[in-house]
Amino acid sequence: MVKQLYKRRDFIGNVVKAGAAGVMANPLLDHFTLIEPMTVSQVIERIIAEVPGGKLNETVDTLKSGSGDQIVTGIVTTMFATVKVIQAAAKMKANFIITHEPTFYNHTDDPNWVENNTTVKEKKELLDKYQIAVWRFHDYWHRMKPDGILHGVLLKTDWLSYNPKEENVFQIPAQPLIGIVRHIKDSLKIPHIRYIGDETANCSIIALMPGAGGGQRQVKMLIENKADLLIAGESPEWETPEYIRDSRALGKSVSLIVLGHAYSEDAGMEYLVQWLQPKLPGIKITHIAPDSTFTWA
């Protein structure tokens, strides 16, 4: 598509002719590019149109605040629409947050999950104050081919070359567990990592499961693929970690690295900026990674 460029001296007249169209400055050419404004609903529809299978009848990927009719002034991608992320979005004049995980502390974002929750009430009021729309992008992003979260993690860890089919289980050159721990810690910028295993033991077949796959699925993935290392976002401590501990006590060579839920998937929401920007020319899209939830003593 040929871009319509407008010289600075023609700016006012052409904006009048353009009606509701927006204008974006191009400092390199000292010109203006005509940009058609988009609503929140139009952005969502454009994203869903890219998903194999199209629109889902049942999904948690719904608007949590704001209106689908509001014109998008900027987009922020994030793992969690925290209070600080909301405030940062408002400061940069972005009124649409695309978050991977819930905003109101439960899977369906039910505001009455716990009655008389003043934190939920005040957070909703904050979003209303800044007129920010929040849309969860979880089910659709995982349904993408390739999975948007997994692709982002493989991209940032530089493991795509070992896993061209972008599967959860793949093989890397054998290396000590501690080397893999350090590589992930550095590439994903994780301040602290928990792991179970012999630091000197070589690992090669990796089961990479960002997020919270659940203990049963994690253990099944290990057994069926004969993986010697599971890298998980999180797992109930009484499930997968205990399986790893007893397996090792029984002489099996298997290890576990726990990244933390947000750290394990944040790269995928960061990659969303790169994926989405060409589809929404003229809308500024920024990734904001939430601060670490925990403080380590």
Quick summary:
The protein has 297 residues and is an alpha/beta fold. The protein has helices at 11-18, 40-48, 83-91, 118-130, 139-143, 148-157, 177-187, 215-225, 240-249, 261-276, and strands at residues 5-7, 22-26, 31-35, 63-65, 75-78, 96-99, 133-136, 169-176, 194-196, 202-209, 229-232, 255-258, 285-287.
Q: Would you write up a description of this structure?
A:
The chain is an alpha/beta fold and 297 residues long. It has 3 domains: 5-35, no CATH class; 40-145 and 266-287, NIF3 (NGG1p interacting factor 3)-like (Udp-n-acetylmuramoylalanyl-d-glutamate--2,6- Diaminopimelate Ligase, Chain: A, domain 1, 3-Layer(aba) Sandwich), CATH 3.40.1390.30; 148-259, Udp-n-acetylmuramoylalanyl-d-glutamate--2,6- Diaminopimelate Ligase, Chain: A, domain 1 (3-Layer(aba) Sandwich), CATH 3.40.1390.30. Helix content is 34%, strand content 20%. The chain is built from 10 helices and 13 strands. It has helices spanning 11-18, 40-48, 83-91, 118-130, 139-143, 148-157, 177-187, 215-225, 240-249, 261-276; strands at residues 5-7, 22-26, 31-35, 63-65, 75-78, 96-99, 133-136, 169-176, 194-196, 202-209, 229-232, 255-258, 285-287. The strands form 3 sheets. A 5-stranded mixed beta sheet has the order 4-7-6-5-13. The chain has a 5-stranded mixed beta sheet with strand order 8-10-11-12-9. Helix 6 (148-157) packs across helix 10 (261-276). The N and C termini lie far apart (55 Å).
